[in-house]
Structure formats: C-alpha cells, structure tokens
Design a protein that fits this description.
With about 400 residues, the chain is α/β, with parallel strands linked by helices. Helix content is about 40%, strand content about 15%. It has helices at about 15-25, 25-30, 40-60, 70-85, 100-115, 130-135, 160-170, 230-235, 245-260, 260-280, 310-315, 335-340, 345-350, 365-380, and strands spanning about 5, 65-70, 95, 115-120, 140-145, 175, 195-200, 210-215, 285, 300-305, 320, 350-355. The strands form three sheets. It has a seven-stranded mixed β-sheet, with helices on both faces. The longest helix is centred in the last third of the chain and has 22 residues, at about 260-280. It is globular and about 70 Å long.
Length: about 400
C-alpha cells in the first residue's frame, strides 16, 4: 500500500485519537442539552464549561471571555460585523490587510456594500504589515482593526502586539484571526493587546465545525450578538451547543499547548530542512513569506516555469499531499491574492507550492519529498514552452 505523506496541515489536521476518545461518550452516554436543569443536562453543562476553561487557559484569557462558534470563519464574521453593527452611525471605517483570509476579506467587502469604508493595508515583500501604516490610517470613525496573526498561505507572522498597542492607544477595537497561530506558536491575548481573537479546533488536531471567539471583558458591550433565539453563550450566540465537538476542542487545545515547546522545535527543524533542500536541489525557486518570522510548519515556494495545479496532481500520484496558491480549480484565472500582495507576478505566483508540516510528519517523509520533488519539477519543466534550461 502506497504511503501517504500528508503535508497540508494548514488546511486541516487529523483528529487525535485521545481527542476522539474523549468525544465519543458525549454522543450517546452524556448527551444532555446543556441548557436543561436536570442532572443529565447539568453534566453536559459541566463539560462545556470545562472546555471553556481549557480554551481560555491556552490563550491567556478568562473563561467568561470565550464564546464557542462553528469555526474560524464564523468567528471572523462575528467579530467584524458585531463591532460594526454595534457602532452603526458612529464608526464606519474598518482597517485590515490585503492578504487576510477570505473570511475577513469577504466580510469587509460585504460591509462596504452596507456603507462602510475599508482600508486594505499593503504588506512588504515578506507579507508583513507595517504598524505605522495602521496608525497613519486611523480616523475618528475607525470602528475596528482586523489583522491576522499568521498568514495561512505563506506562514508570515504579523507584528500583532505592536498593532494592538496602537489600537489601544486610539481606543479602537482590535481583532486578530489566529486560526493558524493557535497550537503552532505561543498565544497570549494580553501580550498581544487584542480585544478579539478567532480560533478553530481542526487546525490543532481537534474536530471540524467548532471554533471560538475571544472577546475581552470590558468590550463585550461593543459587540452585537450573532444569532438570536436563546440564552446560549451569554445570549450572544443562540443555539444548542455542539457538545461532543466542544469537548474535543477543549482536549485538543490543552494537549497542543502542553506539547507546544517540543512540537515547535521538531516542526521547525523539519521545515528548515525541507526549505533548504528545495532551494538547493531545484534552480529558480523562491521562498515566499518571511525567512524566520514564519509559522514552524509552513513551507511556501514559487517554482518558475510550471503550474501549481499540475505539480500538485503529479505529487498526489506519488502520495505527497500539498496545496498551491494557484486558483485554477476555483474557476479563477488569478493566483492567490496573498502571493500577488507580496509582489509576485502572475506567472511566478501560478507556480507556487505550499507544504505544511504537522505532528505526524517525520524526517523520512521530508527526505522522500526532497527525493521526488526535483524529479517532478524537471519532468514538468521539460514540457513547458517557457523553460529553456536543461
């Protein structure tokens, strides 16, 4: 049987066995509605609140500041829309970056249709926002700043604490999409100076369909509710809680934080070996993202004279699973907005490859990729009319 080398952990991760085992009893044995006052319901309530404490502890927050959602995209939508709706008529300006996840960008675009003004800040060649650009764009009507903690495509870490300090001084709410950061690097909402933070369990070996929004105590009154119809999540997000998933998220984030130092060291070493090997063995390749201020497991390169989708399909035949910044499969002729945002041409951006490492990857797997990838590139380049090399 062909070994599968899964290198798309930025897209999703495999749920940990320990997490799944903790979840299973909450499907049949402890299935109560956490809002019910009988003992079965209250057992469920205790499980929800335990998970809330686990999530809060992982990011340096208080349990009352954690609101469970269906995932990172919902949390991003809630943070931006919630602030804007609450400040309607007073703050009609949003500041974000040009390379945010679409959960943020599309929400901002929707707010523009509702009469809000959005500033999309440029980034440098490594994908980093200049905090002074944030400060210079602040206005009397700025309602919220939203800048991601770590980019999902190129792995660049943003200067979140500096941006947060600027926002605090101006009295403007600051949200960060930390979906890629939580479980990969240390996260502390106080040190980062954030008012709101989004996270998603399936990025750190938890279940899909569950996430959370951190809302700092003291600013809750400046954020409107998301779903109405019940008193769940302190009346801000109605709906019966996804009990098994919430339990799984709590276990997954607790394990991720406990193992973070060892995990970060291991994954960073594998990442560096993979980057160095690719750059040395394949000519005309560039690393995308910051060389050092990047997520431990992120490798993103652009390989000239080939198309990312073709590269992915050839690698898939070899059992190597990655992703690309090329958007051909989505029906768009344009490559990733992130790669264009850091100044890449369409041609170079179309030849991008993202390989993201996780806890189950090994040195032997990295070695296998370094053996197979140059052969695939040579084969594809031989068919390219643009490539004139050997």
């Amino acid at each position: 049987m062909k070994e599968i080398i899964y290198l798309d952990n930025a897209a999703t991760t495999a749920i940990r066995r320990e997490v799944m085992e903790e979840m299973l009893p909450y499907f049949r044995e402890h299935y109560g509605n956490p809002s019910s006052i009988h003992s079965v319901g209250q057992d469920a309530r205790l499980a929800v609140e335990k998970a809330r404490r686990q999530v809060a502890s992982a990011i340096g927050a208080e349990p009352g500041e954690i609101y469970f959602t269906a995932g990172g995209s919902e949390s991003d939508n809630w943070a931006i829309r919630g602030v804007c709706q609450k400040s309607a008529g007073k703050g009609k300006h949003i500041i974000t970056s040009a390379i945010e996840h679409h959960a943020v960008l599309h929400t901002c675009q929707a707010m523009e249709k509702d009469g809000y003004r959005v500033t999309y800040l440029p980034v440098d060649e490594f994908g980093r926002v200049n905090p002074m650009d944030v400060k210079n764009k602040l206005g009397e009507d700025t309602a919220v700043i939203t800048v991601m903690a770590a980019n999902n495509e190129i792995g660049t870490l943003e200067p979140i604490s500096e941006i947060g300090a600027i926002a605090q001084e101006a009295g403007v709410l600051f949200h960060t999409d930390a979906v890629q950061a939580v479980g990969a690097i240390p996260v502390d909402v106080s040190a980062w100076n954030v008012d709101m933070l989004s996270l998603s369990a399936h990025k750190f070996h938890g279940p899909k369909g569950i996430g959370a929004l951190y809302i700092r105590e003291g600013v809750r009154g400046r954020v409107s509710g998301l779903i109405y119809g019940g008193a769940q999540e302190r009346s801000l997000r109605a709906g019966t809680e996804n009990l098994p998933a919430i339990v799984g998220m709590g276990v997954a984030i607790e394990l991720a934080v406990k193992e973070l130092p060892e995990h970060q060291a291991k994954i960073t070493a594998l990442r560096n070996r993979l980057i160095d090997g690719i750059l040395k063995s394949i000519p005309e390749v560039r690393l995308n993202g910051h060389p050092t201020q990047r997520l431990p497991g992120n490798v993103n390169v652009s390989i000239r004279y080939l198309e990312g989708e073709a590269l992915l399909m050839r690698l898939d035949l070899l059992g190597i699973e990655g992703s690309s910044g090329s958007a051909c499969t989505s029906g768009s002729l344009d490559p990733s907005h992130v790669l264009l945002g850091i100044g890449l041409s369409h041609e170079i951006a179309h030849g991008s490859l993202r390989l993201t490492l996780g806890r189950d990857n090994t040195e032997a797997q990295v070695q296998k990729v370094l053996e197979e990838l140059p052969k695939v590139v040579t084969s594809l380049r031989a068919m390219s009319p643009l490539h004139k090399g050997p």
